[in-house]
Amino acid sequence: YSGMSNEWIVHFMCFKGYGTKDYFENIRIDQSGIYKLNDVKKIEQYMEELFLIYTRDSQMEMYDFSRVLYEILLEIAKSTTIQNEKSFQNQNKKVHLLMDYINEHYKEPIVLSDLAERVHLSKEYLCQLFKKINGFSIFDYITDVRLAHAKTLLIQDRNEKIKNISRLCGYEDVSYFGMVFKKKEGMTPAKFRELH
Question: What is the pLDDT of residue 15?
Fold first, then answer.
């Protein structure tokens, strides 16, 4: 054996808590082991960001930790290399291209048929595949991305009207935004702002 480089750098993370086992099983990591990530630099950046959050004293600390950990989990899901499963990797790539698209275009109307066309899949198969790979539906993902941005805006821009925040997060109808927010968060956007 001869090494590919003179220096080895090993990063390790442990995840524990409610939903962790199911999440990793859904992305086909069902046991402890060594997994190669395609984009280690992104994970390193997230780890540095976690350390910076830890060193700051901020009211947003808990939300910042959650946001970065969620990004790490998504990056693991997107970049975990699974050997001898080329077709799965191709499908996985399509789903994660759409996840990136949703992250960039959450402010705009997002239509399932457009997403399916973008990756040359049927709407039905896309929904099945997205849930199989991630463990949650594509609609839940769109909602979660939009609400994560809404929560940040509600706290950071306290003078911004809720109807404007709803538009900035992809909801033209503020009543619908309020209903979705309350269903997911257990409180109205105004109450969330008041408590945070």
Answer: 73
This model's pTM is above 0.85: no
Q: Residue 6 and residue 162: Cα distance in Å, rounded?
A: 55
Quote the crossing angle between the two packed helices 123-134 and 86-105, to the nearest 10°: 100
**pLDDT value of residue 87:** 61
> What's the chain's length in residues?
196
CB-based contacts of 62-67 (< 8 A; 24+ apart in sequence): 63/151, 63/152, 63/155, 67/148
Averaged pLDDT of the chain: 84
Structure tokens at 43: 């994970």
User: In this predicted structure, what is the pLDDT of residue 8?
Assistant: 63
d(CA 20, CA 36): 19
Tell me the C-alpha distance between 96 and 102, whole Å.
Answer: 10
